Amino acid sequence: MKARVEWKDGMSFLGESGSGHTILMDGPPEAGGKNLGPRPMEMLLMGTGGCAAFDVVLILKKSRQDIRNCMVEIEAERAPEEPKVFTRIHFHFILTGKQLKPDQVERAIKLSAEKYCSASIMLGKTAELTHDFKILEA
Model pTM? Predict the structure, then answer.
């Protein structure tokens, strides 16, 4: 896997993935940025949420669950001192489908958290990770 990040202006950086996708990251005005994009640590958090949601959807589909939507709301806390690593991350999954089984949803989230989601497992080395979920009927 490869990526490239190039400084553009002020505190703006253009990230390019190995698959050819780009995203602009920027800092807040008080740090010299123009608030034109997400902060790098926000990208890390969103990437972790994407990794976990990807796993959960894939596992539920393989379990023949009729999943229609998956959203994960993430709240994190960071250490007050440098390096300001994540110390607590909570994932709240909101799943929509037809007759989704709570035990299957719980199993999918647990498998993602403990076995498949590289990002959350890596962040779990510095942060306490918690998960919960809500199921909505389609």
Answer: 0.93
